[in-house]
Structures are given as structure tokens and as C-alpha cells.
Specification:
The protein is mainly beta. The protein folds into two domains: 222 residues, no CATH class; 155 residues, Sandwich (Immunoglobulin-like). 5% of the residues lie in helices and 36% in strands. The chain is built from three helices and 26 strands. Strands 1, 2, 3, 5, 6, 9, 10, 11, 12 and 13 form a ten-stranded antiparallel sheet that branches. Strands 14, 17, 22, 24, 25 and 26 form a six-stranded antiparallel sheet that branches. A three-stranded antiparallel sheet has the order 4-7-8, with no helix packed on it.
């Protein structure tokens, strides 16, 4: 299973020491808009889709993202290496600037105390704070910023805090090893219409954000991330543990990120999570598809990923979660073979505490013509790193 640990190690060389912040600096000389493409995805392993409308991005996302509340931090709060953004699912941040001479730290700033005119105070989507590389000489908030998440994500959105017009902007999702999954570019626009949103068909653990001009002074406001909550694992696709009677799924459900094949669909049953991983919100919902119509299933929680994350043979499928098992509830699939934990409080039923990582799975009935004859099967697993 993937984690943010390897990405943090890859980026560790970028962690700078906190430095003094001299006042009264002037903006970087020679800064200016760079010519570049409009909304476009450059080639990479992932299929990326860009949005310049937050409304359209939210509609395509289909769930509520986590928004980092920079306004909750004091003006001048050092973010890099401090865990300041952990309450909002960001493990750490890194930055570099050719203008500033290499690795640079990031801060939460108030637009009311800008020491040079990056943009007009009062023009941000929400005031007063925004997030940027160190604003003082010689960096002047230029360069790139990388944010590392506490769990896999498939969507990010933000508003660029920059002058008018905003330069061509780029968002680059990174996998757990820090490898680029592609680059999404956004056209130059003017505040307050500077939203940049991205959806990826591949989960990522961090994003690198930059302007097309290395001399451009910029920041971000209303940074949001979301998509699939938790990390799916333990698939009945034959790449990990082999399904009990060679009943590997055919990839027709959730691109193969599902359990072993059942009598209803050769693609098996897939489990995902929506909502958020915040214990305070208690809005996480487990959703299953590809089940046997009108048959019941038990949603359960475990502390461990069975078989090192590949699962262990159980009935017609693979058991993916175990250890300290808690039953969350029984739900019957509808005629289309779907069910969910909607209406159940997963946090309360699972006794979840922020900071814990739990695994989830659905054990469901398949009484007639099950592939291996056991009469039951399981979905894939979902791992969730719980936040406050």
C-alpha cells in the first residue's frame, strides 16, 4: 500500500531552516507575464482534467473537498516542517526558487501586510490570509510550492493570488515516490477569476504548483483537495493474492480495483469511500457496487491490512481487513447491485480516533451459483487515515 512517507523522504532535501524576514523589500526585478498555452494537460502517466470554474470542478468531483483554512493561522506563520496544515490533511510543504537561491520555506500571510504589491488586498476569494513562499528578499514569493497530503487524493483546486493578469499557471500531481503524473496548465487570467482545478484518474500524494515565469511573485488562497477518500487496496485482479478458484475479476468494475468475480458480474464488487476522513465531520460513507442484487452484506472495520495488503482467501474472495474487527452494519444491495453506509456513523460505530488508520471491507452474500460454491464473497479493501 502506498503512503506519504516515501514522498516526504524524496522531498526532505528541500526542507529549509526558518529564516529572518526583513521588512520593506521590493519585488523581484524583471518579473513579467510569460507566454504559454491555455488550459491543457501535458503528457504523463495519469489522465488529467483541468477546470477554470470551481462550480464545474465541484460538480465533476461529486463530493465535498477539504479546504485548508489559511485564515485560521496568524500572519507570518511558518508552515514548512511545522505540521501547521495537518488539521486539513497536508503533511508538509516544500518550495524552491531560482530567484531566491534554492530551497525556501512557506508561510501563511495576511494581505494587509504585503511589503510589495503582489496583488490588491481585498481581491482574494476569502480574506485576509493566503499561502506563499517566503515573501522577503531575495525570494519575493517566487518559485514552486509542493504540498504533500496525508492520504491519496484525486482532486485539487485553488485560487491563484497574483497580480493582474495572473501568469500561466501549472499544477503537477506526484505519486508516492515523487514521480510526476503529468502537468495541467491554466491560462492567464485576472483576480478574482483565477480558479485552477484538477481531477486525475490516478491517485496522487502531492502536488507541485508553479507559475510559468520563475520571476513571478504569487501565492494561493482557498486550497482544496479531495476525490477518493482513503486508499483502495487488495484487488481480485490476480496481481496480488490469487482468487480462490481462479475467479479473478475482468477489470469491468472500477478498472479492476474490485474484489474477485461473483455470480452477478465478472468485474467483482468494488468498495470506495466518499465524504471526508475528518472524525469531527463524521461524514465518511462507504459505497459498494457490483454486488449481487437484493442480497445483504456486512460492512466491517479492521486495524490491519490482511496478508500485507494482498489479502487472504476467504469464501469466493479475499479478506483484506482484520484485527480488532468491528461490525458497522448490514445493508442489502439494491436491484442494481449497489449499497452504502449512508445513515451510519462510521466514526462512532468504529470507535475511531483521529490519527488512527483503519481498513474497511464489505462481506456480502452470493447464494446462487457463486463461482467457488461458498455462497459469499468480499469487495476490495479501503484504507483510511483519520484526521481530526
Amino acid at each position: 500500500m502506498k503512503s506519504t512517507v516515501s514522498l516526504l523522504l524524496v522531498l526532505a532535501s528541500f526542507v529549509p531552516a526558518a529564516s529572518a524576514r526583513p521588512q520593506g523589500a521590493n519585488p523581484a526585478a524583471g518579473a513579467g507575464a510569460a507566454a504559454g498555452p491555455g488550459l491543457a494537460a501535458l503528457p504523463g502517466p495519469a489522465v488529467l482534467t483541468g477546470f477554470t470554474s470551481r462550480t464545474a470542478w465541484l460538480t465533476a468531483l461529486g463530493s465535498t473537498p477539504t479546504r485548508v483554512d489559511f485564515d485560521a493561522l496568524a500572519d507570518g506563520t511558518l508552515v514548512t516542517g511545522t505540521g501547521a496544515l495537518l488539521p486539513w490533511g497536508v503533511a508538509d510543504t516544500f518550495g524552491d526558487s531560482t530567484h531566491g537561491g534554492g530551497a525556501v520555506p512557506q508561510f501563511a500571510y495576511c494581505s494587509c501586510t504585503m511589503n510589495f504589491p503582489m496583488f490588491g488586498a481585498g481581491s482574494l476569494p476569502s480574506e485576509p490570509n493566503y499561502f506563499a513562499n517566503i515573501r522577503d528578499s531575495p525570494t519575493y514569493a517566487t518559485g514552486t510550492i509542493t504540498l504533500v497530503f496525508t492520504q491519496a487524493r484525486t482532486a485539487v483546486g485553488l485560487f491563484v493570488a497574483d497580480g493582474s493578469p495572473v501568469d500561466v499557471f501549472r499544477i503537477e500531481p506526484l505519486d508516492a515516490g515523487g514521480v510526476s503524473l503529468g502537468v495541467q496548465t491554466f491560462p492567464a487570467r485576472a483576480l478574482p477569476d483565477t480558479f485552477c482545478g484538477l481531477l486525475s484518474d490516478t491517485a496522487f500524494f502531492g502536488v507541485k504548483i508553479s507559475s510559468a515565469s520563475p520571476n513571478d511573485s504569487w501565492g494561493i488562497d482557498d486550497f482544496e483537495h479531495g476525490g477518493s477518500v482513503g486508499q483502495t487496496y487488495c484487488f481480485g485482479d490476480g496481481l496480488g493474492s490469487i482468487c480462490p478458484c481462479a475467479n479473478e475479476n475482468d477489470g469491468s468494475v472500477a478498472d479492476g480495483e474490485a474484489g474477485c468475480a461473483n455470480s452477478h458480474v465478472a468485474g467483482g464488487a468494488a468498495l470506495t469511500a466518499s465524504g471526508s476522513a475528518h472524525t469531527s465531520s463524521a461524514d465518511l460513507v462507504l459505497v459498494a457496487q457490483g454486488l449481487v442484487s437484493n442480497q445483504p452484506g456486512l460492512y466491517f472495520q479492521g486495524d490491519n491490512a490482511t496478508g500485507g495488503g494482498s489479502g487472504a482467501l476467504f469464501g469466493d474472495g479475499l479478506r483484506c481487513a482484520g484485527g480488532g474487527v468491528r461490525r458497522l452494519g448490514v445493508r442489502a444491495a439494491d436491484a442494481a447491485g449497489s449499497s452504502s453506509t449512508a445513515g451510519l456513523d462510521v466514526v462512532a460505530l468504529g470507535g475511531v480516533v483521529a490519527g488512527e488508520t483503519k481498513r474497511y471491507q464489505l462481506w456480502y452474500r452470493d447464494p446462487a451459483n457463486s463461482p467457488c460454491g461458498s455462497g459469499f464473497n468480499l469487495t476490495n479493501g479501503v484504507e483510511v487515515a483519520w484526521l481530526p
